[in-house]
Amino acid sequence: MLLNHVPFPIDKNIAPDLDSLRDFLDTAPKASKLALFRDIQLNYILWDDEPLCSVVTEEMIKMGLADEAARIWKSG
Question: pTM (2 decimals)?
Fold first, then answer.
């Protein structure tokens, strides 16, 4: 089964709305979540934005990416 990629808008000059981000993560396919994690890490220093970092790393852990989540927290 092929799932379509659903993008979440990321703008390095505007912090993402965390409620919208959580809603997106609740329904997005895995490929879209992975693309979002990439885009966020390219545009933000996650450990400088603890609420955003928490949302991202919590979802990573749910997806079985605990090592990556730990790496993000350790880099701060």
Answer: 0.86
